[in-house]
Amino acid sequence: MPHDKTKLEQARAYEAREGAAIPASDRPRLHLTPWVGWMNDPNGFCYYRGAYHLFYQYHPYDTKWGPMHWGHAVTRDLLHWDYLPCALAPDTPADALGCFSGSAIELPDGRLELLYTGVSGTNESPVQAQCVALGDGLDFEKLPHNPVIPSRQQPEGFCEADFRDPRIWREGDRYYCVAAGRHKENGGSIELFESRDALHWEFVTVLDASRDTLGAIWECPDFFPLDGSQVLVVSPQSIGPVEDPEIRPGYGTLALLGDYDAGTHRFERRSVQMLDHGMEFYAPQTVLTPDGRRVMIAWMQNWETSNDAPRRHSWFGGMTLPRELFVRDGRLCQRPVRELESLWQDEVLLRGLTVDGDADLPRLAGRYLDLDLVLDAAQSPDCRALTLRFACGGGLFTQVRWEADRGELVFDRSRCGTRRDIPHIRRIPAQPRNGKLTLRLILDGECAELFVNDGERTITALLDTPLQAEGISLHSDGAARVDIARHTLA
Question: In terms of C-beta density within 10 A (0-12 exposed, 13-18 middle, 19 or more buried), how is residue 82 classed?
Fold first, then answer.
């Protein structure tokens, strides 16, 4: 197969030159951004040779989506990232229109396999199929006989233009991968394939499908066991109206919890939930850490708003903080990776604080912090609502308001400085657990991640507020008893 290596060489030379010109102060401290240009889906999240590797959908030459490459970064602590050279460029007939999303796995001989979607054909009639590149964690060679799973290997009724995002894993002496497909009748579907060598694949079954009730196509699937449940994560496009008020229309990410019979390859879903209720969260991917944790990272953007978002930097797009996943009371929950605590500095503790009306809290101020607030609802019977404001300054702020009578939390960034008519307000259920409501807020400059009741629900959002706006305040309608711990993130 002809191979135009100059495309990869050009991309590596460009990113090295242009990325070096971007000062560290122009990026978040902890959230991964592209070396330069555009970033979307996380790809190939894996632990390989003593470090975590994360690849990502990448267009180095512009801050808007373009011909997809694979960017590459590595970390040992899940917090601080080093850029590695671009891993893949669209430089063969099998991927001439783009190297789309995929995953990675270490093979028994020590090589790292990248299983990704190659797009060929024409822009008017694209064909998507699954391809392989093998390498040492830095340089990769594509198989000359790509694709390894051509679109014709799908069952009858599936579309060749929507067949992408393979997620690979190993069970015993077999390899499996799930991929996103679109059936003419059942809509978004997750197809399961099997292989003995991770190179030659056979179709097994369809694990689950939207049946046009939960999106036109389910992108970026992930499939793993966790705490006695089997979890299927999908990112649907074009979710329509559904009965569950927590599931929003449009683009989003869903977690389907159920049971899986590995012998018959039958998945039976028990429940469906939004994985994140914020404005910027899509296409997550997980890794199993050496100590047994299931850790997830996601694209911190939204397809329905990203194209018109302002370009303030020489890069666009970023990733969430890595999050530990766990199942509690039938829900998939998430919390920041515990490694974050190693960065805590300048601790401020406010214990047994009673708030009734406005309370400005200058000791808590900052835009790079980890703040934990616990409302003792059982000891605050007169508290009708509690509002936490942050990134305050110059008349700008973002706020989180808990409304006791509705049992809801309202996240509102409409006063953050934005000039765009896009979603700014989210409402989610939030009831005290064992008499207490907990909020954990991570701020990293323009990034905000909120974890409610130890990760029962999360909200991810970007802020347009200048970094000089650092104030934090509370307001309570009726006396509220709270404990607050704030740590600066170094």
Answer: exposed
